[in-house]
Specification:
By secondary structure, this protein is α/β, with parallel strands linked by helices. The chain has one domain: Aldolase class I (TIM Barrel, Alpha-Beta Barrel). The protein is 25% helix and 23% strand. The chain has a nine-stranded mixed beta sheet. It starts with a strand and ends in a 6-residue tail after the last helix.
Length: 214
């Protein structure tokens, strides 16, 4: 697999915010969001075998107690050995997969029912709107969620429209872009009563700053 970095931190986004997790960040992404905060993952990585990744996990486990592994990117679904890694991990750890929502989860992740999923829904300011694969809604389960990253009121209104059009019971997250006008976007959120939706910030950035490896 192409790995960008492996590190231990807290989860700073989504419904599992605050959980201690070991993060495995894969290399490369098929999208190019305007506000992407992990551009360094596009081409900055190195080859690691499944065995090397497992050894790295055990290295962290020796000195730290954690139950979660987050596989993120980049876009993890582009890694052809992803399922082989998950087969080695799902009996020992809870696995959270962070994906852009553009690739067919079932096609690229046959073991989709073995992992929790953070699925992004790209909005207009990302310049990647209309990339969401609606087929993925069939593969979401309890504990999965859809995340809408918003940068302005137009993004917010688009997110509300898309949430109202999704006819399955699902947890939704609205997350302001780092350094956006969080107060104004929160005020907009407070004007609405959106089904199964929370507004959440990137907690890890408020703790550690906007940098990699945290």
């Amino acid at each position: 697999m192409k790995i960008n970095e492996i590190f231990l931190s807290i989860q700073g986004e989504g419904i599992y915010t605050g959980e201690k997790m070991l993060f495995i960040r894969t290399e490369y992404c098929n999208l190019r969001c305007s506000w992407c905060d992990t551009k360094y993952s596009f081409n900055d990585g190195y080859d690691m075998s499944i065995k090397e990744i497992l050894n790295k996990i055990e290295y962290y486990k020796k000195n730290n107690n954690f139950n979660w592994i987050c596989i993120t990117g980049g876009e993890p679904l582009l890694q052809r050995d992803l399922n082989d890694l998950i087969k080695k991990l799902y009996n020992k750890y809870k696995i959270l997969l962070e994906t852009s929502g553009s690739l067919d989860i079932k096609r690229f992740l046959p073991l989709y029912n073995r992992v929790y999923k953070d699925v992004d829904f790209k909005l207009p300011s990302s310049n990647m709107y209309n990339k969401f694969n609606y087929n993925n809604l069939k593969y979401l389960h309890k504990g999965d969620y859809i995340k809408f990253v918003i940068n302005d009121v137009n993004d917010f209104n688009t997110a509300v429209m898309e949430i109202n059009n999704i006819n399955i019971k699902m947890q939704f997250i609205i997350q302001p872009v780092w350094n956006s006008d969080v107060k104004s976007l929160t005020d907009e959120f407070m004007k609405h009563n959106i089904k199964n939706t929370r507004l959440m910030l990137q907690e890890h950035k408020y703790i550690y700053g906007d940098k990699r490896g945290v």
